Amino acid sequence: MTTTLTTPPAPVPSLDEPARPSPLRLVRVEIRKMVDTRSGRWLLALIALSSVALMPVMLFAAPRGEQSLAAMVEAAQVGTALLLPVLGILSVTTEWSQRTSLATFTLVPDRHRVAAAKLAAGWALALALTAASVLVAVAGRAAGEVLDRSGGSWELPPGQLGKTLLLALVAVSMGTAFGMLFMNTPLAVVLFFLLPNLWSMVGAMVAKLRTAAAWLDTNSTMTAITEPGVTALEWSRLAVSLTVWLLLPLAAGLARLHHREVK
Question: 61-85, pLDDT tens digit by residue?
Fold first, then answer.
């Protein structure tokens, strides 16, 4: 009798799909992308310096009675509100200009998850920069007190602080939407600042468009809610203008991001 020895088959390596990165990890990665590039670091530095630079202007140019903490916060937000959209634009367009899109979308094929992480990362940085500008305003008000140049109130209404945070989130979201829509840094930056301002000019010059301009001009609708006693009509105008300049570009940008070929 002969005995046949059989060798057991070699184990087949597991081909299970690796676990997807968590949303929090994706947000951390996107934040790191936004602060690790030279352009990102310079932009963040400019946003911070713009808040600091406006404090001496307030101390030495504004009347003593108007140098309140609320006025200091409003002044510190000027540069932040102007440059936050650029931060949102760069968060998207640098994926294509620096050729990191292939690695990004290979590791995370679901592009909508990447887009959501970019939005959340922009919101996190916007909140951090807004908080930093508020601290700069507090320091400016304290310096005015020490130098005996400020005579305004130290009160900062919670409503103003909430509106300031809201406008910061809106600004970076609009920039992200334009970045997704055009996916080219110079084009997105130019059109972001050109189109709303061009609409404002046309609305001011053409009488028949003034009513529409009041509803679609973000320069006026976003400024209106920073004033005390905001009415329901002003909130409605803000909602309509953001639908045109934020939601529609974001929807179109997500569609383009989903279908764009990665090279």
Answer: 888 888 888 889 988 988 888 899 9
Instruction: Give me the half-sphere count of Cα atoms (radius 13 Å) on the Cβ side of residue 259.
Output: 6
In contact, 174 and 84? CB cutoff 8 Å: no
- Residue 246, number of CB atoms within 10 A of its CB: 19
pLDDT of residue 14 exceeding 70, the answer is no
Calculate ∠ Cα 129-133-134, nearest 5°: 120
Overall average pLDDT of the 143-147 stretch: 87
Long-range CB contact pairs, 220-227, < 8 A, 24+: 222/167, 222/170, 225/163, 225/166, 225/167, 226/74, 226/160, 226/163, 226/164, 226/167
The Cα–Cα gap between 4 and 131 comes to 77
